[in-house]
Each structure stands twice: as C-alpha cells, then as structure tokens.
UniProtKB/TrEMBL annotation:
This is 2TM domain-containing protein. The chain crosses the membrane at residues 30-51, 57-79. Residues 18-106 form the 2TM domain. It comes from the Bacteria. The keyword Transmembrane helix applies. Keywords: Membrane, Transmembrane, Transmembrane helix. InterPro entries: 2TM_dom. The lineage of its organism: Bacteria, Pseudomonadati, Bacteroidota, Flavobacteriia, Flavobacteriales. The keyword Transmembrane applies. It comes from Aquimarina algiphila.
Length: 113
C-alpha cells in the first residue's frame, strides 16, 4: 500500500514538474521574442535610415514593421500568460470551458447510455 502511495506521489510530482517546465519554456520563448523584437527593430531602423535617408515611403516601412510585429508579439504574450488573465480563463482555450462543454455534450440525448 505504501509503495502505491509513493508511486502516485512521484507521478503527481513528475506531472507537476513537466507542467512547470513547459510553462517556463513558454515564458522563456516569449522573453526571447521580446528581446529579438527590440534589437531587430532598432537595428533595421538604423540601417534603413543610413542606407535610404529620409524618404517619405520609409516612414511607412519603419512604422508598419514594428506595429505588425508588435501585434504578433502581443498575441504571443497573451497566449503565454493566459493563465494569469481573468477574461482569458472563460474562452475556448481554458480547461474550465473544455470541461463545461464536455459535460454539456454528455448530457445531450445522443450520449446517454
């Protein structure tokens, strides 16, 4: 009996460790994305000004690139920190929604035994 409890405890600890490791990897990936975003946008802006000078079309390129990339970065951040955002917990990406939906489907007439 004691061995079974230890195996279950170790299994729970291993699952918790795997989840924590996955979450850490997601956060690390997001922070790397932020660093690359900042460094690359600064470098590209400097090179574009140095090579092309001050042209009207250049302003659009300089503003659109970080804006569009920033939207992608925002989405990456929302996905990475979705567990900490209250309104995100009720979306189709949450476990609570998934479990609630499964219960609704199981209550449906087609799934009754």
């Amino acid at each position: 009996m004691n061995l079974k409890v230890n195996i279950m405890t170790n299994n729970k600890e291993q699952n918790a460790y795997k989840k924590a490791k996955k979450r850490l990897d997601e956060e690390r990936g997001f922070y790397m994305h932020v660093i690359i975003y900042v460094v690359m946008n600064i470098a590209i802006t400097i090179f574009q000004y140095a090579l092309d000078g001050n042209k009207d079309w250049l302003i659009w390129v300089i503003t659109l690139r970080p804006l569009l990339w920033g939207i992608g970065l925002l989405c990456h951040g929302l996905w990475t920190f979705r567990r900490n955002i209250k309104w995100f917990k009720n979306t189709i990406y949450s476990k609570q929604w998934e479990e609630r939906k499964i219960m609704e489907i199981m209550k449906d007439d087609d799934f009754k035994f």
